[in-house]
Amino acid sequence: MGFTIERLEILLLIAGVVAMLSRRLRVPYSVGLVLTGAVVTLLPAGKSVVLTKEVIFSALLPPLIFEAALALPWRELRRELPVVIPMATLGVALAAAITSVGMHYFAGWPWLSAAIFGVLISATDPVSVIATFKEAGVSGRLRILVESESLFNDGAAAVMFGVLVAVAAGHQLTATGVVTEVLLTVGGGAACGAVVALGTLYLAGKTEDHLVEITFTTIAAYGSFLLAEHFHMSGVLATLVAGLILGNTGSLGAISARGRGAVEAFWEYAAFVANSLIFLLIGVHEAQQDLTGLWGPALVAILLVTLGRAVAIYPLCAVFMRSGLRVSSAHQHVLFWGGLRGALALALALGLPVDLPYRGQIVVLTFAVVAFSILVQGLTVTPLLRMLGELKSRGNIR
Predict the structure, then answer these.
(1) For the chain, which terminal residue's Cβ has fewer other Cβ atoms within 10 angstroms, N or C?
(2) What is the 3-state secondary structure (H, E, C) of 295-359?
(3) How far is residue 92 from each of residues 16, 65, 124, measured CA to CA in Å?
């Protein structure tokens, strides 16, 4: 589907109406949009909607990552990094391994196809996670853990995914080559984000016009992502670093006080628009998937992904039980069940080589897992938060 002005206006109108109805009916906004997108497929125009990796990566993902990073307080995030980094790296690897092994033995997939599916579905999606937890009103330490883990674990998944796709393409990779790939993808992505952010701060320091400052931050959000992706590095990490730097440099005075308020308001709206379009498009394409003959593998995939998420959270959190970084059991439950999958997994699946064995099944099962994640987990996250009353008493839910 081409994003003409007319179609974009219609989608935004739908998003606005769904937002009002979801709030009134107390249904998660993301769930309402996905269900509405499924209904859109019944209309003649709905059949022409096309969801591609380029639409998600190049247009919709950067503003969502940037806005989330912009609001992350570095002082609090730095304190939680010893917990977040293991979950976002080793946790992703463990989850991917469990899913890969399970798909090989229980679904009969070849090792390479099973491994690629395991990796692309192992990382929680920042789009789905942040949208759901913002709507639920999560704040405090729980918010820092949930949002930062979902943002950082994409870097690890992207590295593993890139390695496996290279193997699928016939490239011979050595241990040294894998280490080099990791350093380039992660370190290079972070460097791209830092360079773009520092350039933005320099330019913003030359003006007090809040409109110009908004323009510079827009360039930073997209520029950091596209620059990193151009050099085959992590665009997610680049935009994350750029957002963290720009969101935590108030003392530098590069962005004026008036400009900071305008920037935050602008990015809140930009994230709303991007979220709305992503979830509507997911709903449209979920309704178009044909699960005929794949219900068994889909159920296996959902169970394996859920098990993998449990292994990525509980054992790693147990390591910190006797330290000052201890994660409460309530927070662990929320991290486990709130590990939603969404647009990022779909983008990776849709971008797979067309000649990859089992590519069609990987795409369909990715949509199946995402549907379960958004509709089932998304609908039950808020009741879970309410059930864990200690979260509310600690001020983690507004």
Answers:
(1) C
(2) HHHHHHHHHHHHHHHHHHHHHHHHCCCCCCCCCCHHHHHHHHHCCCCCHHHHHHHHCCCCCCCCH
(3) 35, 19, 9
- Residue 290 and residue 365 in contact, taking contact as beta carbons nearer than 8 Å: no
Query: Which amino acid, residue 232?
Result: H
**Every domain of the chain and the residues it spans:** 5-393
Task: Identify the band that residue 390 occupies on the pLDDT scale cut at 50, 70 and 90.
Answer: very low
The tens digit of pLDDT for each residue in 20-69 reads 898 888 888 888 999 998 888 877 666 566 677 888 888 888 998 899 89
Which residue shows structure tokens 């069609």? 360
The conformation of residue 388, written as its DSSP 8-state character, comes to S
Q: Could you tell me which CATH class the domain 5-393 is placed in?
A: mainly alpha
How crowded is residue 242: how many other Cβ atoms within 10 Å of its Cβ?
34
How many other C-beta atoms can be found within 10 angstroms of the C-beta atom of residue 2?
Answer: 8
Query: Taking the alpha carbons of 297, 47, 22, 7 in that order, is the dihedral positive or negative?
Result: positive
pTM score of the predicted model:
0.88
Residue 138 is classified by DSSP as: B
